[in-house]
Amino acid sequence: MTQDDAxxxxxxxxxxxxxxxxxxxxxxxxxGDAARAELIRVQCExxxxxxxxxxxxxxxxxxxxxxGEHGKGWLSELPEEARPDLEDDDNGDVFQRGFVAKVxxxxxxxxxxAARLFAATPLHALHLREFAEGLxxxxxxxxxxxxxxxxxxxxxxxxxxxxxxxLQARHAEVLAASPHLGNLRELELxxxxxxxxxxxxxxxxxxxxxxxxxxxxxxxxxxxxxxxLVASPLLGRLKRLQLGGRWNVGPAGLRVLVEKGxxxxxxDLGLCNNLGTEDxxxxxxxxxxxxxxxxxxxxxxxxxxxxxxxxxxxxxANLSWLWLGDVPLTVEGVTALAASPQLGKLSSLLLDNxxxxxxxxxxxxxxxxxxxxxxxxxxRLRKLTLDGHVIGDEGAAALAAWPGLTGVRRLSLxxxxxxxxxxxALAASPxxxxxxxxxxxxxxxxxxxxALAVSPYxxxxxxxxxxxxxxxxxxxxxxxxxxxxxxxxVLDLGSARIGDEGAIALASAHFPRLRELWLxxxxxxxAGGRALGASTELGGLTTLLLFHNKMGDDVExxxxxxxxxxxxx
Length: 569
Description:
Blueprint: H1 3-13, H2 18-30, H3 34-48, H4 56-75, E1 95-96, E2 99-100, E3 102-106, H5 107-120, E4 125-129, H6 138-149, E5 159-161, H7 169-177, E6 186-188, H8 195-204, E7 213-215, H9 222-230, H10 234-237, E8 240-242, H11 250-260, E9 268-270, H12 277-284, E10 294-296, H13 304-312, E11 321-323, H14 331-339, E12 348-350, H15 365-372, E13 383-385, H16 392-400, E14 410-413, H17 420-427, E15 437-441, H18 446-453, E16 463-467, H19 473-480, E17 490-492, H20 499-507, E18 516-518, H21 526-534, E19 543-545, H22 553-563, E20 567-568
Parallel strand pairs: 3-4, 4-5, 5-6, 6-7, 7-8, 8-9, 9-10, 10-11, 11-12, 12-13, 13-14, 14-15, 15-16, 16-17, 17-18, 18-19, 19-20
Antiparallel strand pairs: 1-2
């Protein structure tokens, strides 16, 4: 065994301990691999820091640079069939504390490479898919599933993701009987069909002693499945339980859960697309949910009574995250949320409306934005989503004048008909000094974009997404000349009409931390494409999106040569 192998073995044997990794980093420094050593140290420090720590900015920049420059080489340590695609947005956290921590593989690839995979890296999260690959009979698929569940390598896992595999009750029974899942903390079974019998087998299993998170959305578990769960000790150990999906639990199943379940340990509960007003009123009146921190109720058809019950519930005072997206909200309901002294701990409030043009479309309009901006108890907000409510310039101005935005890091106002006046009001808001991500759609143009570019309050902005078809070349030029947006990592101007002139300006813009530039459907021709390809400022890009621009075959080839797989044409 080489010295390098000995360090790897020590890390595999103590995957939760930073000390062997940091000792290995020192050794790597002494043996010519400073980049990997730096990644280990940077990611170990990131793992210890809270999400809002200002030190994360520089560390995350260093992390992105290191993975962008060296990630593919480091992935070569893994079997080829198990290597993650770093350009897939879902693989943003493949490397954790310096090593590959999660992979997504087909069942066949896992069978072929499990020993080599677990010998190469301290893997703790595995997403298995395509159990039917190359097989044609249900019995053969069931046999493959049983063989994998009998693998001792599963003992290394903390997270097992089996979503979208058409698993049924008999597969859940095999899973529950596996003796190799004793270290599992999270089990994701969404979009399968395990039904009540499958849930009963999991609930009764003695082989899941450390399970803390169970995702069961779209599994048709029903009231009888809930009866089995509440009768088992498993429910008392769970911190996260996801039960969303039409016909998954339903009102009868919810009654079983809240009336009989030991819910004191739950911190995260998902009940999307399941319930009506009466059910949510019952939920709000459940004392055993007093420890709940996250509640997902999106896509439920609720009236104002339900929203008021949530706002007034003394049992939901510990909520920090509330999702009421695609719920037919009213101004009265939002007023109740805004006035609630019980919701003072909320850090994320998601009120997106994606039901435009459907029977459940409920746009709050400017009045709804004004109602929210009247809140004096939401001072801990860090994320606010109001997509699709058509708040317009008046609503945007009301939000801009709201001190409740002082701590907000992420603000999304997509599909809100915000024009130049509303965008300018946001740019002038002194309450947006902590903002890191901003998304706005609407009929704004160069005037509003120019206001953002010169704003003295957006120096921490990392992600700017502007879907405004009236943005022209001068808007792109204003952004390019900005001195206040130097922290940008992502700039999205999709569908803006910036043309060659705007693309040439962006090619010379100094955004030293920019990693993603989205310019799809921006009317860019050959001259703009050549400028982007020749730019000395865009060397750090990991994504350059240029869909639906007519730049010509030769320019597209030039861009591919310059940016490789980062460019998408």
